[in-house]
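pipeline: protein-struct stage 2 | run 1193 | Polyprenol monophosphomannose synthase
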Amino acid sequence: MSNGIIIIPTFNEIENIERLIRNIFSLQRKFHILVVDDNSPDQTAAKVKELQAEYFGSLFIEERKGKLGLGTAYIHGFRWALAHKYEYVFEMDADFSHNPNDLIRLYNTCEKNGADLAIGSRYVTGVNVINWPMSRVLLSWLASKYVRFVTGMDIHDTTAGFVCYKRTVLENINLDKIRFVGYAFQIEMKFKAYLQKFDIKEIPVIFTDRTKGSSKMSGGIISEAVFGVINMKLKSLFNKTSK
């Protein structure tokens, strides 16, 4: 039995999912995997189910009825992980933008170095992004700077989606009150942990843009992140006890 589980939301990731799963299961430290699939038309879920026979007891899948948003996929996964008693719960993209080898470093940051939340950071030691156009690098970097300024969080990569939570963090965040569903979800979860004074540590990682499949980024997702942050901060000022 592993004490750590990797949550991987998927929508049309058939080109990546098998290789990613095999990469994770080949690591020296053993993790379990939970795929949360939003009814992918390309049969991503079917491929995961096929692999379950090979990785019985270590690979799990939760299927949802449609594309319901990144945030709700992770919250679904968090609830599942808590119910199944995992001590360390990870977020990870399905497209190899996050290097599976870095999972061990995130785990050790929590398990050995005492962090409650470990973030795989693109910006803690400069800008570590490969294959993005400069316009997108600048947008992402400025977004993190903006969020850091508005919220006061001492986090360089506020929108990072490669993280490890200790169980206690997720137990103390009211998941019913998480309102963002796109990439702003990542900001909101970090902000909730920050408000409760959990120990948050960043470790440098290299982010590599996907080479297979298509990006899920949209204008609506960016707008949610930019304008929602101010509202989130203002609400925290009027409700100091909010989780």
